[in-house]
Specification:
The structure is a homodimer of 478-residue chains. With 478 residues, chain A is an alpha+beta fold. Helix content of chain A is 21%, strand content 33%.
């Protein structure tokens, strides 16, 4: 008796993750196509004074859109007993609406393909990056800005429970967004669908392959892709994929296979799920995070001048105002505030084989915009400090990561933050495989987790931060 | 080969849940003992004016302790697109510190016993109820009030990961507390331990049996007990317990056995865990909850007079000030603000056998103090309205619950809210088994879940509200 596993979501995701080329554009063709798009796109971004912003006003101590929609730049005062700084002020993006980050998927030749859009965002390092099928704030799709209705929106609004493969709320950058979340959703359709210009069908393996390059896959794609788990495949499914030579058992000893095993096994964990919950409970019970709104014009250590809000020491980031002209976006000309970082950051996971299974050194990290005090973060996350400075040793594992031998580096590239809010912000993403001499003992607030355990926490609200998810999305099994 | 399952936490919990009498006091003796304690306790509570409160002040628009610790009564303005009321003001308890609600357990004759305290709280309907071993706010155990250090605190502060059986953050009443949570923790010790006056060792089955009576088991005990899952017992453990006649297979058809099966089975769910997450994601993406502090003295529709803060129409609840004299509590005389409800409420789960497994009709409910917009609540939860009024039909399933035949009622009793904050607040707790004619179709924002699925969500942060947990804690398998 032949069992049809194609009705199993996990089986389909896994098959797509092992399918190195789809039936439409090859990965090479996608790279060329993006390059081509990038060359022909017209983008002109100019810094302007806040007073030159159209439809944006400084009012009630914040920078807000006259409609009251989209987002605002607020000031906050932060108090915490975490870390060395007990209190600080900063600007933060306040965007309480939950937006859609959604993929339409469809089976072609028995393999799930994802519909991606070559999308221009003003802040992107490459202006054109691959985004999910739908990337829309509630203001977008309720058409506050009178632009066109986002393409494919109706598929998500009308999706039935059986069409929805995944549907989770996931957080944005906690240092920059005040408790912002997006709805990360993947739906599967059976019917014919029109593929508009700038859209392309890719397998999951192709998307992950493109993540090996700098700044081709945007943050929104990465967060949605990170939510796809592989742990609920039955043994029979794995055997079936193996028999069909989708999974090649000859590669059992490669590091990629070790990641695969870490993603599906529920055994040989160093810590049980209950232990990890206890670890988190203890931290959330010990540390406080108090955030109160404060007038942008009276933030301690910050200067609000005509065209910038920046720190007196110019550290971390500044708020700027820009005039944007873009060729092929829904609204081709507009002004908006943006966040510009002072320098690029570094996000790295250190992984190590423990009890025969790859474990990730995960850090509990407090960021002021977190909904719930801490989220699980990469081993190293220096987003806003200059990690090249001489204080490197103050950040645990930073030296280790920066001095890793190339044979131990699985991932090392630059990836952009969301280009609609951040101006040319990119961070170095790294995954390092530690040698045996790397200690199993971690500092307080760090814990070892398998990939399967990370996926377990990922599917519940607000456990893994966006930097951790971005790194997880890049893990490919082939 | 005989496997020793006693090292498995789940096995131990299950065995204790099936052990109708412990080796110390019988359940009957506990009831008599509580009665006796109640009769001899000296409690004198008098309403006073706010100005007569000692060490409490009205300052910055709130009622606060002069130390800045314990809790404050704040005013809030609430805006939401959920339900019929788009905006309202109300007082709320603000207590940002996470407190301990903890049980010490120990094996006696191979069965796990829980150490409970007969504890007096000023607001309790019976002054003396059974509380966890430790019930302490951070202010308590950092000894702000100069009282005695809480008994057994050091066991929890020094607990090693292997001693910790359960350790979760769980929410308090979302209509009364602003994002308040407690650390629900159960530890197991091996060593001899001194049992102080007013403490008693009971099995899990005894605790659940005592919950059949009105107001004997306090809210803090109920929330910690609710976190004990049974779903991770292996088939071998169940066979072992069955062979040892701990689980009696002759009762397969009783309703209690159906609850047991619903708690352990992961099959025949009407909805997958992923479907339930999608259900929650959709609601959290659709509904907004904006809460801002507002001066207690300027709350719309509320009157702040000398000795009460009450609504103009006297609905819902009022804030009062009381003078407390208690015989055998750490601090024997003090004053404090309290919350007094206008009338008792009703919390009820309707359960129905679907696909051969009991499912619970669960409601997603927005309450203004929720950390994350909605939590999963009982089928019916009318805490603050007069459910006996003629608007009963406006609340889904309320008529059904109030008119249930006694043969369909598994649980029906009165249980108290936390007696340290609430003055004589009790709610009717009910679990109803629906007949086949009860429709499988539920209104929007309701979903069917098995007990095993409820336990899955319960262990992650802030999914089940305290009323749902209180009901779950009362489910006994014998």
């Amino acid at each position: 008796m032949k069992i049809d596993f194609n009705s199993h979501i996990s089986y389909q995701f896994l098959k797509s993750a092992f399918c190195s080329e789809g039936i439409f554009k090859s990965t090479k063709q996608v790279i060329d196509w993006l390059q081509e798009q990038n060359e022909k796109v017209h983008v002109n971004i100019q810094n302007i004074a806040f007073s030159e912003l159209k439809n944006w006003v400084v009012q009630d101590g914040r920078i807000k859109h006259v409609s009251g929609k989209f987002f605002s730049i607020d000031g906050i005062n932060v108090k915490t007993n975490w870390g060395n700084v007990a209190e600080w002020d900063q600007p933060i993006i306040n965007q309480p609406e939950v937006g859609f980050l959604g993929f339409i998927t469809k089976e072609f030749d028995g393999v799930l393909h994802f519909l991606l859009q070559a999308k221009i965002e003003p802040g992107n390092v490459n202006y054109v990056q691959l985004s999910p099928t739908l990337q829309a704030t509630r203001s977008n799709y309720t058409q506050v800005h009178q632009g066109n209705k986002p393409k494919y929106l109706e598929y998500f609004q009308q999706a039935t429970p059986t069409q929805i493969l995944l549907d989770q709320l996931q957080s944005e950058q906690g240092a920059r967004f005040l408790r912002k979340r997006n709805r990360n959703i993947i739906i599967k359709i059976e019917e014919e669908i029109e593929v508009f210009d700038n859209f392309v069908w890719l397998t999951l393996a192709q998307i992950k392959h493109l993540m090996l390059y700098d700044n081709l896959i945007n943050m929104d794609t990465r967060t949605v892709i990170s939510t796809i788990p592989f742990g609920n495949c039955s043994h029979e499914m794995l055997v079936s994929l193996s028999n069909a030579q989708v999974i090649n058992h000859d590669v059992t000893n490669t590091i990629k296979t070790q990641f695969f095993i870490s993603s599906i096994t529920t055994e040989n964990n160093l810590h049980s799920t209950e232990d990890i919950i206890s670890f988190i409970t203890n931290i959330k019970s010990t540390y406080d995070l108090f955030v109160e709104r404060k007038d942008l014009r009276s933030l301690n250590q910050w200067v609000f001048d005509k065209s910038e809000i920046h720190r007196e020491d110019n550290k971390f980031f500044k708020v700027i105002a820009v005039n944007v002209e873009i060729g092929n976006r829904e609204v081709v000309h507009w002004t908006q505030p943006m966040i510009q970082p002072s320098q690029e950051g570094l996000c790295a996971f250190v992984c190590k084989k423990i009890n025969g299974v790859l474990h990730f050194a995960v850090q509990a990290k407090l960021e002021c915009g977190n909904l719930d005090i801490i989220e699980l973060a990469p081993t190293v996350q220096c987003l806003t400090g200059d990690y090249r400075g001489n204080k490197a040793t103050a950040v645990p594992f930073l030296d280790y990561v920066l001095n890793a031998q190339s044979s131990n580096i699985l991932v090392d590239n630059l990836q952009s933050e969301e280009g609609g809010r951040f101006f040319k912000e990119q961070n170095r993403n790294m995954i390092i495989i530690a040698d045996d001499e790397f200690s199993n003992q971690l500092p307080a607030n760090y814990i070892w987790m398998t990939l399967n355990q990370l996926y377990t926490f990922l599917k519940f609200n607000n456990y893994l931060n966006i930097q951790a998810r971005s790194l997880i999305s890049a893990i490919s099994f082939i």
